[in-house]
Specification:
205 residues; alpha+beta; Glutaredoxin; Glutathione S-transferase Yfyf (Class Pi), Chain A, domain 2; 2 domains; 4 strands; binds L-gamma-glutamyl-S-(2-carboxyethyl)-L-cysteinylglycine
């Protein structure tokens, strides 16, 4: 059986678990809990992923996969007939991949903000750095609101899942930033998307 190194607070891991749930494939992986940070690898699976990050997917019949986009792309090849087409062929694929990258980029910046405040001593923290990262998140959220709502109104794909997990993470770690202000379409889309059983089952805590 495949082993997914995971943590319930990781939005990258959440993408993988939501995809499996949406495909009815949750029982194909066993979860192995891991915690750690760049300053303390803790129980991160450094043997499976030398970068010391999660998710990492150990497979009985092949190399361990990381990062999350490699894992989701791989798992999408194993989904049964009738499951959503997470990475559709044709021109829409490039939209899906760019949307997934945008969502992951939101998470990348949001995590750098989090690490800056949670891991660095107060006197070493840079508010310019934190605000620079928030600038990336904010611009990307604006782009979702102005350019991506038509895509998000279409059939479920990996872009939807990545955006849902990214917004969930911004709520989880940066609630005080009030990302919904000025983004009514994205906020309404998320309110509905967050009610999917796959999302309700994976709320970070
Ligand atoms: O960077 C580290 O040493 C530990 N951090 C992680 O493993 C985070 C967990 S989210 N994962 C990644 O950075 C993976 C990024 C990669 N590009 C991917 O898989 O897509 C923890 C967030 C939190 O707890 O607030």
């Amino acid at each position: 059986m495949m082993v997914l190194h995971h943590s319930p607070t990781s939005p990258y891991v959440r993408k993988v678990i939501v995809l499996l749930d949406e495909a009815g494939q949750s029982d194909t992986v066993r979860l192995a809990h891991a915690t750690g940070t760049p300053v303390d690898p803790g129980t991160m699976p450094v043997g499976a992923n030398p970068l010391g990050k999660i998710p990492a997917l150990e497979r009985p019949d092949g190399c361990t996969l990381y990062d999350s986009r490699v894992i989701t792309r791989y798992l999408a090849t194993l989904t049964p007939k009738g499951a959503p087409d997470f990475y559709p062929d044709g021109p829409r694929l490039w939209e899906v991949l760019t949307l997934e990258s945008t969502a992951d980029g939101i998470v990348d910046a949001a995590i750098l903000m989090r690490y800056e405040t949670a891991l660095r001593p107060a006197e070493q923290q840079s508010s310019a750095w934190i605000e620079g990262q928030w600038g990336k998140v904010s611009r990307a959220l604006d782009a979702l609101e102005s350019r991506w709502m038509a895509h998000l109104a279409g059939p479920l794909g990996m872009g939807h899942i990545a955006v849902g997990c990214a917004l969930g993470y911004v709520d989880f770690r940066h609630d005080e930033r009030n990302w919904r202000a000025g983004r009514p379409a994205l906020a309404a889309w998320y309110e509905s998307f967050a009610q999917r059983p796959s999302m309700l089952a994976t709320v970070p805590a």
